[in-house]
């Protein structure tokens, strides 16, 4: 599962893209160039889907600044223009791929898979948190070197929280992000998965890996922040 940032000021289109990609990936959404730069400064992403025409800062300017700052996530530019000179400008700014509007969501998903295959060494697949190591590529969790068996949805929920360490998510937001679009999951489903993760991963005498924020939802525990292991 890759972490993707969708930067698109047309909110219905942004949601459409995000909902489609959430079937297989973790997706964040922002709606202007300034928000995009802030997200890129505070988060680690594998792919950026970046609209050319944005409020505040253009997609081209965002891409240039991101590359100048050492950012190496794959960038797929979106634009309504078809001319070759326009595309050349995007590639010169640091884009890896280019799609013209309107486009098929299925094709966009194929482009995402392609850029992920192209540069696998640049993506962060392993995270450390407390005494845990989570290898998202091998779908493996270890604690003190011992493997901890997680069910697929438990693993996906843990990975999602690890990729958003400062965010608090309501049960509905977790359902939208972790469960399938047509899922019948409800609040009790989320609570059950979180309780099972706590039983499998928490250590006696330490705060839980997943904190409850009363009246709001859940977030990654505060005792330590996760760090990239690779």
Structure notes:
The protein has 230 residues and is an alpha/beta fold. It has helices at 11-21, 33-42, 59-68, 84-92, 105-118, 152-162, 171-178, 187-201, and strands at residues 3-7, 26-30, 47-51, 74-79, 97-100, 126-129, 132-135, 140-143, 146-147, 210-213, 217-220, 227-228. The strands form 3 sheets. Strands 2-1-3-4-5 form a 5-stranded parallel sheet, sandwiched between helices. Strands 9-8-7-6-12 form a 5-stranded antiparallel sheet, covered by helices on one side. The two termini are 16 Å apart.
Content of β-strand: 15-25%
Please trace the helix and strand order, writing H or E for each element: EHEHEHEHEHEEEEHHHEEE
The biggest sheet amounts to: 5 strands, parallel
Shape: elongated
Low-confidence residue ranges: 224-230
Strand order in the sheet with the most strands: 2-1-3-4-5
Roughly what percent helix?
25-40%
Work out the number of β strands.
12
First-last Cα distance: 16 Å
- In angstroms, what is the radius of gyration? 18 Å
- Number of helix segments? 8
Overview in brief:
Helix content is 38%, strand content 21%. It is of the alpha/beta class and 230 residues long.
Fold blueprint:
Layout: E1 3-7, H1 11-21, E2 26-30, H2 33-42, E3 47-51, H3 59-68, E4 74-79, H4 84-92, E5 97-100, H5 105-118, E6 126-129, E7 132-135, E8 140-143, E9 146-147, H6 152-162, H7 171-178, H8 187-201, E10 210-213, E11 217-220, E12 227-228
Parallel strand pairs: 1-2, 1-3, 3-4, 4-5
Antiparallel strand pairs: 6-7, 6-12, 7-8, 8-9, 10-11
């Amino acid at each position: 599962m890759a972490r993707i940032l969708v930067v698109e000021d047309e909110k219905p289109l942004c949601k459409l893209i995000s909902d489609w990609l959430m079937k297989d990936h973790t997706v964040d959404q922002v709606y202007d160039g300034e928000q995009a730069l802030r997200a890129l400064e505070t988060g680690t992403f594998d792919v950026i889907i970046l609209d050319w025409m944005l409020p505040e800062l253009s997609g081209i300017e965002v891409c240039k600044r991101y590359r100048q700052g050492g950012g190496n996530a794959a960038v797929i530019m979106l634009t309504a223009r078809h001319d070759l000179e326009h595309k050349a400008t995007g590639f010169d700014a640091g884009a890896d791929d280019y799609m013209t509007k309107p486009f098929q969501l299925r094709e966009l998903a194929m482009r995402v898979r392609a850029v992920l295959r192209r540069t696998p060494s640049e993506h962060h697949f392993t995270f450390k948190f407390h005494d845990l190591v989570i290898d998202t590529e091998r779908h493996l969790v270890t604690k003190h070197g011992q493997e901890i068996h997680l069910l697929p949805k438990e693993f996906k929920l843990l990975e999602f929280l690890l990729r958003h360490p400062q965010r608090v998510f309501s049960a509905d937001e977790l359902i939208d992000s972790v469960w399938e679009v047509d899922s019948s999951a409800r609040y009790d489903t989320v609570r059950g998965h979180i309780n099972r993760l706590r039983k499998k991963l928490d250590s006696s005498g330490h705060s839980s890996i997943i904190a409850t924020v009363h009246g709001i939802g859940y977030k990654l525990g505060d005792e330590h922040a996760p760090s990239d292991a690779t």
